[in-house]
Amino acid sequence: MLKKCMGTPSLIIPTENISIKDILSYEEIPVQILYCQVCRLRTKEVA
Out of the domains of life, which is the source (predicted)? Predict the structure, then answer.
């Protein structure tokens, strides 16, 4: 159940003072698969 929240003006952060970087990215690092289990079905094998 949601309740009403009465905000106080002192807790509001002005958006003009917040700086956000335009370039939001992450670096992908390849990881080696250490263990691979093969499941055998009736007609095929699934890794």
Answer: Eukaryota
pLDDT on residue 39? 82
- The whole-angstrom separation of Cα 36 and Cα 46 is 10
Q: Are 46 and 39 in contact (CB under 8 A)?
A: yes
Q: Which amino acid appears at position 42 of this protein?
A: R
Q: Which residue has the tokens 């990881």?
A: 31
d(C-alpha 18, C-alpha 12), whole Å: 12
Average pLDDT per consecutive 10 residues, the chain (47 residues; last block may be shorter)? 74 73 79 81 83
